[in-house]
Amino acid sequence: MNAASRLPEKSRSGPGRGGPVPGRRLRLVLAALVLVAAVAVAAVALGGGGSADRSGTASRSGSPSAAPPADPALLALARRDADDPYAVGKPDAPVVLIEYSDFQCPYCGRFARETKPALLRDYVEAGVLRIEWRHFPVFGAESEQAARASWAAGRQGRFWQFHDTVYGKPRERNKGDFAEKELLAMAEEAGVEDLDRFRADMASDAADEAVARDVEEGYALGVSSTPAFLVNGRPVLGAQPTDVFAEAIEAAEAAGADRAQGGGDE
């Protein structure tokens, strides 16, 4: 596999295959997201930590209560496809958490190991939450290879097993841990049955297109670091403590119940 970046250049600069550009209202909401990110950078300067960007620096967001109200265009980003192998939870769950992550991001790994199991147990299994993954490789060629490999694992219904295998332990970034040989070994450990098909899918144009679509969506939103999340359209940045996600999920569920009962908009 070519070590050079295979993502289309336009995926770095905004909308493309990802679909129509959201309108002015959404751009105003996203300006608030950029403001939250700026606050996160300030927190780093004061010694915080939470999420990794391309330079390996850490960032940290505040509580979800500081986020702007959910916008319908942001809510519409949830795909809710019952056949989506890169999602877990009921398609009609009242809350959707969209995760933009990189398999080489240490804070994404922290979320996967420390927070996601609790969210699966307490909210996904209860039918409250759906988690939808977005490929968002920001650390270069090995990140892009890992993203394509995860897509290929999903083609055989083993995305989440592959996800858990990759994040099961910390790995070195851009040191060969995500070379093709290593990815094949991870796929085998994750229970991917047809490794020849996995290898072909990983190298396919379809893999490039799927990853580019998610990258374009993320950049259109202003996402520049990982992990980044939308909880029913409200941004949460970084590997925040589990209770931050719990509060965001429960607030989103309550807001949805209020709307269903005619309680009005948020």
From TrEMBL:
Region of interest called Disordered, as start-end residue ranges on this chain: 1-21, 49-71
The keyword Endoplasmic reticulum is annotated on this UniProt entry: no
SUPFAM superfamilies: Thioredoxin-like (SSF52833)
Pfam families assigned to the protein according to its UniProt record, in alphabetical order: Thioredoxin_4
Keywords, ordered alphabetically: Disulfide bond, Oxidoreductase, Redox-active center, Signal
Domain called Thioredoxin: residue spans: 67-254
Coiled-coil residue windows: none
UniProt keyword RNA-binding, yes or no: no
InterPro entries: Thioredoxin-like_fold (IPR012336), Thioredoxin-like_sf (IPR036249), Thioredoxin_domain (IPR013766)
Similarity section: Belongs to the thioredoxin family. DsbA subfamily.
Entry-linked PANTHER family: DISULFIDE BOND FORMATION PROTEIN D, GLUTATHIONE S-TRANSFERASE KAPPA
Protein name per UniProt: DsbA family protein
